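Module 6 notes. Inverse folding takes a fixed backbone as the condition and produces residue identities as the prediction. Think of it as a translation problem where the source language is geometry and the target language is the twenty amino acids. Below is one complete input and output pair. Work through it position by position during the lab.
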C-alpha cells in the first residue's frame, strides 16, 4: 500500500494535465499512488489520462459523468489507499520536494497546512508567494483544498466530505476538519504552484451568480459546524464578514450595478440576522484584506455601496 495518495480531479485539462502529472512523477519521494479522475470532460482529457497511465504503474485512471470538483474529490477519498492524501488541481503543479517535505512534516497530525506560489498560467512566472503564519487564524485563512495533506483515517472516521455547494465547498470541507481537531500542523513552506488562469474564476463572466450562493455556504457552516467550541467569537465574526466582502469584490468585476447592490443588501442582512454584522478585525490577517473589510463595512453603514461599486469597477481587482 502506498504511503500517500495524490488525487487529481480532471475537467477539460488536455492542454496542461501533463505538466501537473510530470511534476508528481518527478517527486523525490516515491511511495505514492496518483489517482486521476475525469469529471466528464468534453475534450480529450480522458485519452490523455490513459496515455499517461502507461508511463508509470502508480497512475490510476477513473471516469464518471460531470458532477463537479467536490463530488470528484469525494470519490478520490473513497478510492485512496494511502495513509495520507493530498489534492492537486489539474492545471497546477508542485515542486520536486513537495511530497517529501509533507511526509517529513506531518508527524501524527490530522491535517498539514502549507503555503503556495501563485504563477502565471502560460509562462509560469512567479507572481507572489504566500507563507502561512503559525497561528490559529491560518485555519480560517488557508481553507482551499490544495497545498495540504490529510490523514485518510481521520477523514473517513469523521465522515468528512465535500458538500454539494456551488461556491466554497473547499472552505466547508476544511472548516469541518479544523473545527473538530487540534492536531493541525502549519509549516512555512510553499511547494504548490497555483496557476492563475486569466480566462477563469474572477476574470470570467461565468463567475456571475444570479443567486447569492455565498450565503448557502455561510448558512451551512453556521448550521452544521460548531466553530464556537474552538474559536473565539471575534474570529468567527471576522471570518463571516471577510467572506462576504471577498465575494462582493469578486462580483464587482462581473455583474452590473443592480445585481451587485442586491448582493450587498443580501450579504449584510444575512450577517445581521446571524449577529455577525458588528465590526471586528483579526490582527493576523493580511493588511490588504483588513483594509477591504473595513472599507466595505463602513460603506454599508454609510449607505455608500453604489459609490464603492463605481470606484472599484474600473480597477479590475484580483483577489488572493
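Target side of the pair, the amino acids:
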Amino acid at each position: 500500500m502506498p504511503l500517500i495518495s495524490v488525487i487529481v480531479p480532471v475537467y477539460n485539462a488536455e492542454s496542461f494535465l501533463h505538466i501537473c502529472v510530470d511534476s508528481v512523477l518527478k517527486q523525490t519521494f516515491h511511495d505514492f499512488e496518483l489517482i486521476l479522475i475525469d469529471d466528464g470532460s468534453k475534450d480529450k482529457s480522458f485519452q490523455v489520462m490513459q496515455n499517461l497511465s502507461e508511463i508509470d504503474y502508480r497512475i490510476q485512471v477513473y471516469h464518471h459523468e460531470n458532477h463537479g470538483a467536490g463530488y470528484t474529490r469525494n470519490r478520490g477519498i473513497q478510492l485512496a489507499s494511502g495513509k495520507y492524501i493530498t489534492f492537486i488541481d489539474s492545471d497546477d503543479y508542485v515542486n520536486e520536494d513537495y511530497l517529501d517535505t509533507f511526509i517529513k512534516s506531518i508527524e501524527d497530525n490530522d491535517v498539514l497546512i502549507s503555503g503556495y506560489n501563485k504563477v502565471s498560467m502560460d509562462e509560469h512566472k512567479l507572481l507572489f508567494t504566500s507563507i502561512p503564519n503559525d497561528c490559529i487564524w491560518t485555519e480560517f485563512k488557508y481553507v482551499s483544498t490544495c497545498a495540504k495533506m490529510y490523514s485518510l483515517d481521520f477523514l473517513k472516521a469523521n465522515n468528512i466530505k465535500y458538500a454539494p455547494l456551488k461556491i466554497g465547498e473547499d472552505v466547508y470541507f476544511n472548516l469541518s476538519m479544523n473545527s473538530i481537531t487540534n492536531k493541525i500542523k502549519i509549516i512555512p513552506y510553499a511547494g504548490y504552484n497555483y496557476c492563475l488562469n486569466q480566462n477563469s474564476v474572477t476574470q470570467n463572466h461565468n463567475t456571475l451568480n444570479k443567486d447569492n450562493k455565498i450565503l448557502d455556504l455561510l448558512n451551512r457552516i453556521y448550521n452544521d459546524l460548531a466553530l464556537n467550541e474552538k474559536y473565539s467569537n471575534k474570529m468567527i465574526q471576522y471570518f463571516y464578514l471577510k467572506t462576504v466582502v471577498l465575494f462582493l469584490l469578486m462580483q464587482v468585476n462581473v455583474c452590473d450595478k443592480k445585481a451587485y447592490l442586491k448582493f450587498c443588501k443580501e450579504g449584510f442582512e444575512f450577517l445581521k440576522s446571524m449577529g455577525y454584522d458588528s465590526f471586528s478585525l483579526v490582527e493576523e490577517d493580511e493588511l490588504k484584506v483588513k483594509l477591504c473589510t473595513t472599507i466595505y463595512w463602513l460603506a454599508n453603514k454609510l449607505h455608500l455601496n453604489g459609490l464603492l461599486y463605481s470606484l472599484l469597477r474600473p480597477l479590475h481587482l484580483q483577489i488572493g
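Reference fact for the lab report: The first strand starts at residue 4 and ends at 10.
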